[in-house]
Specification:
Blueprint: E1 4-8, H1 13-24, E2 28-33, E3 44-47, H2 53-59, E4 67-70, H3 79-97, E5 105-109, H4 113-116, H5 144-159, E6 162-168, E7 171-172, H6 182-196, H7 206-210, E8 212-213, E9 216-217, H8 218-230, E10 237-241, E11 247-248, H9 249-259, H10 281-292, H11 305-312, H12 323-328, H13 336-349
Parallel strand pairs: 1-2, 1-4, 2-3, 4-5, 5-6, 6-10, 7-9
Antiparallel strand pairs: 8-11
InterPro entries: Epimerase_deHydtase, NAD(P)-bd_dom_sf, PRISE-like_Rossmann-fold
Domain NAD-dependent epimerase/dehydratase: 5-218
Protein name: NAD-dependent dehydratase
Amino acid sequence: MQKHALIVGISGVIGRALAEKLQQEGWQVTGLSRGRGAIPEGCRSLTADLTDANAVSAVLAKEKPDALYFSVWSRQENEKENIRVNGGMVRNVIEALGDRLNGAHVALVTGLKHYLGPFEAYGKGAVPVTPFREEQGRQPVDNFYYAQEDEVFAGAEQYGYRWSVHRPHTIIGYALGNAMNMGQTLAVYANLCREKGWPFIFPGSPEQWNGLADVTDASLLAEQLFWATTAKEAANQDFNAVNGDVFRWNWLWPRLAAYFGIEAAAYPAQIMPLEGRMQDAEEAWREIAARENLLEADINKLASWWHTDADLGRPMEAFTDMSKSRKAGFTGYRATLDSFISLFEKLKAEKVIPQ
């Protein structure tokens, strides 16, 4: 019989790539979301307020997935609220499905804030030695990732499913209206620089500019999630999930600039976040979108200045070890420059950015 997957957060960068991978593998895919974004073609859609336990229970009353995937979060004003809301969303789905999850696989996507701490705690505590490894464990700070994990672990004890946790770095992939989308943000930024003659300045910290880094191609994460669904070695394990190469932004930045036909500016004397420099971006993008007949004229649905600033502004080096995955049998790999170029080509093809 055809396998059935339920993806919570299907309209995001990760959910979209995972849905495409599962469909390629012959799975039936259902997405559960708040209904704010388009879902991939061929998928069935369920809509509910994930913070409303009764609404979630009602919409999932007849669902019995072979695999359940969580790639969802809702940004709150502080980490205690992040814990309450985001942990609650995972709990609501698991409890709504209950015993129908017996024998299934449940996968949770979190990220490197597992090692770094949440946005509001960046650089305020001890950071594990790079590269980050799964055995380094949790930081002694409030973190909604830990709350989501604990809900998955508790559900496994109660309902008898196997689980996996996946920790990507910055995701490079395609989705509109996503709050955490650095690749698309940089594409919009580069096009604005080309259009307006603005300098293409790296907006991050000197530690990020000079240190080693890595990222995660959404399609590679989808491959790892699919592998973990059935691989014996992946049952009840946590895994880092990155491309497998490392780079320095001082190497990558001029190559991204060259793709868009612009010059990379010299690294500035002080950090220059995007959010403080993009006051004129909304009107400029509306003009570009109208002239080029682009899909979206509202730059706020394309670019996440704050998140890109947070990623690139970290006051420490951040990259990840993949040995645990490799030893367990997952050998997926992407070259990071190729990941960016592939995304940029997709954005052009879908008329999100100009040719």
